[in-house]
Design a protein that fits this description.
Elements lengths: L3 H23 L5 H8 L3 H8 L13 H15 L5 H17 L4 H7 L10 H7 L2
Helix pairs in contact: 1-2, 1-4, 1-5, 2-3, 4-5
């Protein structure tokens, strides 16, 4: 049985980083190496995100609420106005929003055939207490 957080690590974190990297490079004019340093990943990872060879499991930019969170995240990161705590909390906010909107359910099913998408409300219920 695969935990929702395991699904997020495989399916949500790479596209989130890819979308943030895109914002940092396109809107803020950063080089790949600088975007990589700010995100805590390698420059080759940023290159793979840009070429859509990594981080393409789901398109977060189609959801306006999540897109807004990504833009705000990139803006704060580019201004270097994030503490480590803020970075983690904001990243978690994006994850919680995606889970609450059930954006990971279909991918969860593809990774774990025993997962019952129709009768699951774990993410919505678990996030109420966070």
């Amino acid at each position: 049985m695969m935990l929702p957080c395991e699904v997020a690590v495989k399916i949500l974190i790479p596209p989130t980083r890819a979308a943030i990297a895109k914002e940092l490079i396109m809107r803020h004019g950063l080089k790949q190496a600088e975007a990589a340093r700010l995100l805590g990943v390698s420059q080759p990872a940023i290159s793979l995100y840009n070429r859509r060879m990594r981080g393409k499991a789901i398109n977060l930019e189609d959801d306006l609420e999540i897109r807004k969170l990504i833009v705000e995240f990139a803006d704060n990161l580019a201004r270097k106005s994030f503490s480590q705590r803020d970075y983690i909390l904001r990243f978690c906010e994006i994850c919680k929003k995606a889970r609450a909107k059930k954006l990971l359910c279909k991918m969860h099913k593809s990774l774990d055939s025993s997962f019952d998408v129709d009768n699951c409300d774990f993410c919505a219920e678990a996030l109420k207490c966070l």
